[in-house]
Amino acid sequence: MENPIFTFSLPILGNPKFRFLGLWSVTGDLQVADCGTREFTDQKRIEMTVSEFVDRWLHDGGAGGGSLLYLKDWHFVKEYPEYIAYRTPMDFSDDWLNFYLDKFHMHNDPDTYSERNDISCSDYRFVYMGSKGTWTPLHADVFRSYSWSANVCGKKQWYFLPPSQHHLVFDRNMKSSVYDIFAEVSQSKFPGFEKAIWWECTQEENEVIFVPSGWYHQVHNLEDTISINHNWFNGYNLSWVWDLLLKDYNEASEYIEDLKGCDDFEELCQRNLAANTGMNFYDFFIFIVRFAFANVVLLHTLAHVKNETSRKPSKALQHIYFNLESIRNVAVKMKPINTGDRQGVLLDLRKNLEDHSFIELCAAVGKTYELIHDQDKTTPTLLQCTDLMCTSFVRSQVQSSEDLVAFINDALTKLGGAFSC
Q1: What is the pLDDT of residues 11-61, one digit of tens each?
Q2: Does 97 reside within a domain?
Q3: How many domains does the chain have?
Q4: Could you give the CA distance from residue 315 to residue 320 in angstroms, rounded to a whole number?
Q5: Angle CA 47–29–64, to nearest 5
Q6: Does pTM top 0.85 for this prediction?
Q7: What is the extent of the structural domain holding 97?
Q8: DSSP assignment, residue 89?
């Protein structure tokens, strides 16, 4: 079982530099949570600038009209790319989600993506700032991703519930979950709640906590706290993302079942899925196809490097091989849905190799694997091999999950010699 209580030292800032933080106000309004007011399944959000938030914090300890205010989901990295405040710990650097969003939009449909909302849907790297007493309600992370949280300063108390017990905090229909584990919880609505066994952990300053996929958690700031929080997924938890999308899709289609005879029923379901979950089937399909392409390019490149240096397969090669197997396994699960084919999605490896953003994605992933596995630099070789790569595969177009499975099988077969002793 993955253990969420995984901490280590991360020497960064110290106590809150409020006046310094107040200068970061040029980007307009941010979403600040009112910890004292519930709105649907989350805390009510108020818009204000960082400087307004900091002024409120300095004036009355973060209370606004009697409520504690908590600045969450500030896309600091995306808004200030030139200001390198920290580096992602190596253990968490295999981050497909943010690699991708640094180069591509998750939504290509104009109905689900707006240039005016460029920052808010651009990445999943956040800064959180809250005074003592601010908190986050019980939840599991977006996309059922992994997450890590580093305390720059302050102290947090975490309460975790493993996936095997998550049904205990849901109602009988598995539609709604407990909001606050310390409030009065209705036994009739949540009959299993009292059986839940919670894991507790106190996170100190300069410590990092890793939250595995599917672990529900509630978090309280025991002191004035500033933290860095990332959500991410990769080959190891990719199946969690698809499982969530399928579950949420079934709920979305059930919700508008009365419209099932309409010609645009499927389009409505996908639009609602993107709005509620953060991506839809088409977004996810394009995402995993691009990562399959990127991993095949890297596999070809590293196999080329290995053949010139050593007969022994490197850890980076084994890592990429695992990634492709993981994508293939998810694609097999997607076959009954015919995800890409439903919308006429067609992705071509050759065209992607002509796309500068795709080459940069490959380079970012390759550089990360060099660091993780202490590998010799392969980026220059990557750039040299892309043209040769185009002639190496008969199949380069992917339109359905079946095509994707076949593409990965072809790639692993033709590059299988890279793993021979």
Answers
A1: 444 456 655 555 555 456 888 999 999 999 999 999 998 888 888 888 876
A2: yes
A3: 2
A4: 9
A5: 35
A6: yes
A7: 18-232
A8: -
